[in-house]
Design goal:
Layout lengths: L25 E12 L6 E12 L3 E5 L6 H8 L7 E6 L2 E2 L5 H11 E5 L10 H11 L4 H14 L15 H13 L5 E5 L7 H18 L2 E5 L3 H4 L4 E6 L2 E7 L6
Parallel strand pairs: 3-8, 3-9, 6-7, 7-8
Antiparallel strand pairs: 1-2, 1-4, 4-5, 9-10
Bound molecules: adenosine-5'-diphosphate (ADP) and magnesium ion.
Length: about 260
Amino acid sequence: MSNRPIGIDIEAAPQKGVAAEVSGQAIIAARDVHKTYAGAGEPVHALRRVTLSVARGEMVTIMGPSGCGKTTLLNCLSGLETIERGEIFVEGRSIHDMPDNERTDHRARRMGFVFQFYNLLPVLSSVENVELPLLLGGVGQRESRERAMAALENVGLADWAAHRPAQLSGGQRQRVTIARALVNDPAIVWGDEPTGDLDSTNANQIMELLEDLNQRNQQTFVIVTHDENIGRRANRTIHMRDGLIEGETVHRELGS
Ligand SMILES: Nc1ncnc2c1ncn2[C@@H]1O[C@H](COP(=O)(O)OP(=O)(O)O)[C@@H](O)[C@H]1O
Ligand SMILES: [Mg+2]
């Protein structure tokens, strides 16, 4: 159990409407998480007393105005950023208590990431971009290629394997990043505004794909968005404001 007081007086604000009970079934469980950025001026309390849990196989969207802490929350939950206080369990393990190399390894093996601006390497083809994490992880060339092709097929891009990012539409590029996120068969897929750079038609198609993958593979999806149409396609939306969880909306029960 970790508790990292930072010696600042954080205003006590009640958390309303959230099923704060962290259940044993949760694949992600966060309790009383605080994250503060110390800058040149006043420290920014990006997360204040955040408690939440996500069930295995659930698709959750995180919504709230710009600057409310959505990206910070995602980065803290996935162990990309440290926290000052509280605890976060992913698949039963306290990620901020793991040694750095274990946490990095856990991320590489168990998590996939999809960001707004693709982060694809422009000189590599689709299949080369998708197989890269496998090659870096020590998987052989032949197996990497086979798995990357299967992942591209999964997102409907088998015919675009040899194309480079510049030759693809925004929607297709985002499919490549989704294939890359899925190539390791992760337990959790994190998305930070994955449809933020797309028009509404493409955004809806990407969301349909994520929903379909969630249903087919029983993977857990946690997706940040500021788009209401995207947000309500999940099982549940968590609403944030000023570093706090304000409440949640259940759209459909898990498994229904
Ligand atoms: N690396 C950083 N250093 C200092 N302040 C930061 C940093 N990252 C985010 N912040 C601040 O933390 C708050 C939450 O940011 P962020 O999580 O990016 O919000 P959102 O993703 O909801 O737009 C904002 O006030 C932002 O300016
Ligand atoms: Mg953000």
